[in-house]
Every structure is written in C-alpha cells, then in structure tokens.
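Thread amino acids onto this structure.
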C-alpha cells in the first residue's frame, strides 16, 4: 500500500490478483483445459501445505531496466519439487518447459509503457520489504479474462495442496 500511494509510473496489481505462478500456460484452446487440470491433480499428489516467506524486492529483466516489480518468495525445497512435477506433467501434454530457472515471486506491478522506473527509484520511494510469513494451502488454475481495460484472474480449478 505504501508503494501504491507514491507517484511511480507503475500499474499495480490489485490485491485479489496477487499470486505465485508455478506454470504459465498462455492462451489455451478450450479442449486442452481438461488435460491441464489433470496434470495439476497429478503434480499435486503427495504435496503438503507450504510455509513460505515474502522477503526481497526485485525487478525483471534487471533492476536498472525494470519492467516488472516483484517481491521474492523464500520457499522450502518442496515448492521447487511441486513446480518441477507440474512442469514435467505439462510437458507431457504438449506445453514446453519455461526455459529459465524457476524463481518464486509475486508480481506487484508493471512499469507503464514508455516509462522508466528502476528498482532503485522504488526503493527510494520507501519500499522496505518486511518479511511476511504465510502458508500456501491451495493450488489454483487461473484463467485471465479481460476486465476494465486490464486483466482479471478467474479461478478455474482449486485444489488443496496434498489432496
């Protein structure tokens, strides 16, 4: 909330849109959604709720050329195992692997087109990240739908971790 009140050239993610992405599928034909749901259920087998912590502020692609502002997630090895299982199950049904290492994070905002907002400017705006502990209990497949000139994430499938 402190950041949102600052005059920064950033489109902030609404609270209800904050999430940690394990696998991005992109645009998917309706007939393939069932296979994705099955892959999620299989990847989830044997998992458990995950204790995690939000810790550091970061930016993609680099801090000096920030396009996406995020907060990093310190997570147990079980999260990487879950992500890897989901990646493998997804690849088995025709979705290519990400191609870069998994870096758990929650996107906070995106720098507006044509604007610059290096991470240093965000930090100077008073954005210390105080570690926040939480427990992830659900795995959710979201569908991105157009809403009010942007996107809204609508849950398509929600499963409890380990169920």
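Threaded sequence (163 positions):
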């Amino acid at each position: 909330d402190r950041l949102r009140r600052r005059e920064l050239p950033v489109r902030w993610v609404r609270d209800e849109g904050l999430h940690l992405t394990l696998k991005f599928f992109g645009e998917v034909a309706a007939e393939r959604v069932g296979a994705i749901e099955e892959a999620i259920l299989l990847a989830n087998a044997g998992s458990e709720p995950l204790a995690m912590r939000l810790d550091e502020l970061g930016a993609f692609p680099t801090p000096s050329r920030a396009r996406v502002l995020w907060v990093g997630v310190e997570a147990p090895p079980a999260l990487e195992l879950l992500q890897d299982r989901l990646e493998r199950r997804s690849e088995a049904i025709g979705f290519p692997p990400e191609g870069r290492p998994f870096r758990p994070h929650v996107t906070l905002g995106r720098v507006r087109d044509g604007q610059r907002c290096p991470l240093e400017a965000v930090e100077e705006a008073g954005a210390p990240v105080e570690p926040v502990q939480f427990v992830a209990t659900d795995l959710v497949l979201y569908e991105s739908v157009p809403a009010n000139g942007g996107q809204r994430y609508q849950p398509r499938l929600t499963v409890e971790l380990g169920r």
